[in-house]
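Honest question from a wet-lab person: if I give you the sequences of every part of a complex, can you actually get the arrangement of the whole thing, not just the pieces? Trying it with mine:
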Amino acid sequence: AVFGATAEKERVGYNILASIVHGGFAGDLYPVHPRLGEWQGLKVYPSLEEIPDTPDLAVIALSEGRTVEALARCGEKGVRAAVCLAGGFKETGEAGARLEAELAATARRYGIALVGPNTLGIINTGANLYVTFYPMRLTGGGVSLISQSGGMGLTMLYRAMEEGLGIAKFVVVGNRSVLDVADYLAWLEDDPQTKAVGLFLEGVNDARRLVELAGRINRTKPVVVYKAGESEGAAYAALTHTGSMVGSHRLYLDSCRQHGIYAVESAEAVVSALKALTTAPRPAGRRVAVVTHTAGPGIVILDRLSRAGAVFPPFAPATMEAIRGVMGENPPVVIKNPLDAAGAGLSPAVIGQLTRAVCADPSFDLVLVIFCLHANWPFPTAELAALAGEKPVVACYISTRAGMAKEQETLAAAGVPVYHSLEEAARGASALMWYARGES
Amino acid sequence: AVFGATAEKERVGYNILASIVHGGFAGDLYPVHPRLGEWQGLKVYPSLEEIPDTPDLAVIALSEGRTVEALARCGEKGVRAAVCLAGGFKETGEAGARLEAELAATARRYGIALVGPNTLGIINTGANLYVTFYPMRLTGGGVSLISQSGGMGLTMLYRAMEEGLGIAKFVVVGNRSVLDVADYLAWLEDDPQTKAVGLFLEGVNDARRLVELAGRINRTKPVVVYKAGESEGAAYAALTHTGSMVGSHRLYLDSCRQHGIYAVESAEAVVSALKALTTAPRPAGRRVAVVTHTAGPGIVILDRLSRAGAVFPPFAPATMEAIRGVMGENPPVVIKNPLDAAGAGLSPAVIGQLTRAVCADPSFDLVLVIFCLHANWPFPTAELAALAGEKPVVACYISTRAGMAKEQETLAAAGVPVYHSLEEAARGASALMWYARGES
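Yes, you can. This is the full assembly:
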């Protein structure tokens, strides 16, 4: 059942119906509106009571006051799950808090699993169920995202689309009147489609439960978290957003670390990390080799990964031999790690040979390859894809995003995450190092 | 004159000729090769001596040993500028250092302004002159980029292309055998096309001269710098790249600050900063207002800009009135800065009206507007473009890059920099605040 159906394209009720229809949901759909009659060929029910069946889910796109009433009627009819979209609850002050208490009590009375209120909704690609007022169609995959904010949820989602990541579940938590972040996380723990989880947090009530749960899940499915609210002003802003107390940022970071949860500094970094974690194998340690034809980016990567705990050991003697075998006995560069193949490395075949040699070197746990977009030198995509194996290879194709979009799919299929910026590549490699199997 | 002309598409000599031809250079072009005869319809001269004229510039795409010899012949003929592409000089050790000393002495003997060696080359869009082995065609504009590394230069250049920035000059400095970073910067100081400069540095010999010069230029043309080499390993990597001593990172940051130069933490941040600085007017101070329909991103922006010294004052009473006039007397949100218009803000017209009201409020020096890509709610592009005025407006359109690409041009023309991520928008706004006209 979808309350708030309307023919007006700019309204939330229209867009939530459009989203569900456009998303391809195969189950029965019951729009509710007292007078609308039909919506784009779909029968609209004048009231919940006239729906011949008991819907599994109620989607309530009504104002805050009417939301409470509609939820009660859902309870009466036996509906056991609801998504409440309206804001205007505890985030607005005392009157809103009273209304929200009423909403929560209603949900508890009838045993309704309540998403929101004040939420952008949820997506389950496995069921083609897009319960949001942002109509879209996602590629399915192993990444699930939970966000306390709609805008930050979209930030992660749009970035995931750009990075070519497939989505399992997407949840905007909103006010956590009944279901809290930990409940959604517990659901994802048991979800076979979910391989890794990204979280955006403002602040939660059950911080201890959340962190302990995330820490446990994290052992089998990486959980990457970005929490806003480090500044003082942000605390008040969060309170008036989803009624959240942000707590101490330092305490939060410490408890994440204690439970092995990977905490990052932006929504973009969540996605870059998830890309590496769902594409590449886990490294055995933090010993990194870099192969490139352009030294400057190697220096930048060295800076960034050093900060994340990477070490850059020298090549083993056999690897030095192999490199000389490719580049000649006296190449016009110093052979060292990061390896700058200079002019020779403009050939994708050479980059492939060098990367193969470095991957075979037991001194390294992770190999990072940097190549720049060029009109006549193709990317070493086939060469890197052929290297897929035990050891993670992370690629950085310095280019516009459009310039490397074609390569992304091939490399992802081969287990090589590719980034179009050093910054993102460093974030991906850092995430892999966080989840290294042991110390090197 | 272009030494190293060849018909082999994968070689540097081919690509540098292709780049110059493709770029549309209108002057005379003299490829040099002992036996080639012609190159895609262009006459190739067997030697420099047979060129009927004295070229203004020699482009030398030969091996390191032959480069020195070719430069001497250029000197004899009266050529007064040269770009030397080969690596294999002081970055490789003692023998290379001796060869480079010879190269520099040759240049000095004949008074040749020498770019490189070990460089990707230079671009001057004003003259359609693309002296690099990365053939491309750029949109002209006010941004000039100087990089000590080819790969980092391309990183900034590709990012600038994505962000819709027009380029004036692009220089990859390489080994600084004769011309150093400060020389290029001095050239840009007098270049009427250049409005702002981005610098990527590894390490220079004349650090004091560079910083003082950059500080002076910075008063009229913003200079944004990213310097690699904060880690210990990076120091050695830089030495074996362009023979640079990186020096103390802390000392570098302190002297930038002392001279008012804006130092950032990545190549991407250089471009985000330049985008704001060449698009928006300078703010009077650091008092920021945020207008959005999605509160979470407002909290994130508050965190990030607070770190950069922003303050978020409350709205003036008249502004509160105006906001209530747009949103109604009792909107289902707390009216405060950051302003979350919630459901009402999904309409571009409402975002436009609210932004206009906030822009008129003398409590603020900069207004940041956040809007999320949606299938049925268009971006408030026309509304924001209409607000162009004294006060900087920075837009963040949360979306894929492709999703907001069309809007970018319209907004840029109106003086509104638009970013597709909060992270980049925060970088843009932070740059504007750095260059604020006074303290608030």
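Two things worth pointing out. Chain B is about 40% helix and 15% strand. The domain at 138-278 of chain B is CATH 3.40.50.261 (Rossmann fold).
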